[in-house]
Each structure stands twice: as C-alpha cells, then as structure tokens.
Amino acid sequence: MDKSWSIEAEQIRKTYGSGNTAVCALRETSLRIKRGQFAAILGPSGCGKSTLLHVLGGIDEPDSGRVWVDGRELYRMKKGERSIFRRRQIGMVYQSIYLLPSLNVEENIALPLLLDGKPLSAQRLQELLAVTGLTKKREALPCHLSGGQQQRTAIARAAAPSPAVILADEPTGNLDSRNRDAIMGLFRRLNTRQHTTIIMVTHDEALAKQCDRVLYMEDGRILRDTLLRKEEK
Questions:
Q1: What whole-number distance in Å separates Cα of residue 61 and Cα of residue 58?
Q2: Which of the residues in the chain have pLDDT under 70?
Q3: Fold held by 5-227
C-alpha cells in the first residue's frame, strides 16, 4: 500500500455477541490518515469510536475488512508478528493511565524498547523528557506524580519507539481543564516537532477542533470527515 498514509482501513465491520443480543459496533467503516496528521474521531458514547481505535491498533480483530499501518496489513500477520509490530509501530494512550507503579518515569518511558531488547538512547530520553516537561521528574515513581504528569509519562512511553502512529483513547477524560489543555499542547508539540501521526478518540467537540481533521461517528459509521487545517508540515 501507499506509504504516504500512516493508517488505512477498508470496510471494517465488528459485531459483539450473536442473535438477538448482537451489537454491531462498526458498519463497513473506511478511513485514511496521512503521515503527520493529527486527527480526532468524535462522537457520542457507544458510537464505535473506541472499537475503531482498537481495530486500528491491532488489539481487536475485525469480523471483516482490512487495516494497514505504515504500509503493512495488520490482520494478515500472525499474532506473534502482529504483537511485535504493534510494540514498534503503534503507540497507545488510554484514559486510564497504565504505568508500572514500581518503575520511575524514565523506566516507564523506556519500557517498550526494553521489551524489544533495545535500550532507549540518552538523546531520545532527553528529547522526550524535555517535550513532556518531565526532566525534573525522571526518577519519580508514578505515585509521586500528578494525574497530568502521569498521563504525560504515558504519552512519552507511547512515543519512545518513534512509532508510525499514536492512538489515544479519551486521553484527557480523567483530567481537569488545566491538565487537559496541557495534554493537548503536548500532542500538538509531538505532532509538529516530531511529525508524529496522532489519532485521538474524544466526545469533546472543543478538543476535536484543536486537531487538523475531525471524523464524526454515529452508530458505527463515519458520517462526516472535516479538514480543519491544511498541512504545513
């Protein structure tokens, strides 16, 4: 596939359950996200946003359809191969912050590369600590961080391997307005300075409008696709 796209999805369908209790979460959903784009997937609760993100991230296999990340077709890979590919090319950020409590900030950030048998270079670590404003917290344990600092650590961890794309599922949902704005500023810096492709799920229209592009979902489908900012990268 054309590598000018970070992610492509073609006719994705996903249903949970069967018979009278079946719930169709995605209905022949297709999209393309360009390299270096910051896109929001917007819509009400239960419309399929998180399911779409998990399918794009290789976490939840669709019933039908195809997904490409960085030119590689995700669901043609064997599970072990897909797991390695995800670790290297897809950064995930969640509303619930999954930091390892026994590891400090620096160790949590380096974790994806250590799992891959590679050390995080000192230069890359310094870049990530600087862009996230965590330089003075590098040795702190998660329990000694604020909620915003914990989420910034999780974002730095997702960005550490320089993945093809970062997928964020309601990343500001548990934060107050000040920390919400700080996280959006961080995503924008990663996007503009390091040309990281970011896809963020949200139900907050104000946050979505800070992105380059908004895909609006309802009932398992993308109903509108609006470009808010022309590419300047």
A1: 7
A2: 1-3, 231-233
A3: Rossmann fold (3.40.50)
